[in-house]
Amino acid sequence: MKRQRRSYKPRTLLFLDFLYITVGSLLIALAVTWVFVPNKTVTGGVTGISILLYYMFGWKVSVTSLLINIPLFWAGYRFLGGREFALKTLYGILALTIWLQVLEPLKDHPLTTDTLLASIYGGLLLGAGLGIVFRGRATTGGTDLAARLVQKYTGITAGTLLLVIDGSIVTAAGVIFGIERVLYALISLFITSKTIDLVQQGVAVGKVSYIITDHEEAVRQAILFNLVRGCTKLPSTGGFTGEQRPMLMTVVSRSEVSRLKELVRQIDPRAFVIVSDVQEVLGEGFTYAQDQTAHDERSS
């Protein structure tokens, strides 16, 4: 029986976005209050600046973060536009501020007092939180807004600007806390970056296979009716012979890879097969995407 594609109404999509922002902000606040602050571990962005100012002047991280984000948010809304994005970003800023305030007592009961473990697990929590917020198509403010503003008027890429900003924050942490803290901060930044990618893209959920064979029709039939997977015929030209022949592309789950290779081997032992990971697969038999049409209508 054919599985029906799920659709989401605009209100459901909006609710999910705000849910992502709420949960992501909670994880970010946990990373800051439960791990980074008690271990004097600095990360990038507004959070890193707030931690530095906390140790320099005793200012609350939640208050400092809010005070820095307010002008950044106003400038972003004024010059970058986007009403829905601005609304969700404002919500993200407020949610993070509230969570930081509520969870502030955790700094007296840290998850760990080992600086290396703090860098690792703090980076994981922060990266997971940011990735979830990004999945809600929002941010919690921060230096990414500043980078986008500067990029608009200077042409310098946002990635370069963020690297300069985060590098400056980490360097300042080295001056205040010592060079070892910089090394730990770099570990944390790396783990945060990789975790964001993992949350955004997901783990490898499938395998894509490219098959070049002299028995293309038999292999195609085996994929369609034995594996019950779809496949696509792509034109290809041999680099040595110059001969044109179709190449089959199919995506299967990890558990089906061995069966696919065995089917191809039985039909054509000389077939050329390439198998590689795919991070996310949207479509029948795999992950179903949210109704993008509804989202586009909601964003316009």
TrEMBL record:
Keywords: Cell membrane, Membrane, Transmembrane, Transmembrane helix
Gene3D superfamilies in the cross-refs: 3.30.70.120, 3.40.50.880
Domain DUF2179: 229-283
Location in the cell: Cell membrane
Pfam families assigned to the protein according to its UniProt record, in alphabetical order: DUF2179 (PF10035), YitT_membrane (PF02588)
InterPro entries, sorted: Class_I_gatase-like, DUF2179, N-reg_PII/ATP_PRibTrfase_C, UPF0750_membrane, YitT
Transmembrane segments: 12-37, 49-73, 85-103, 115-134, 155-179
Membrane topology qualifier: Multi-pass membrane protein
Protein name from the UniProt record: YitT family protein
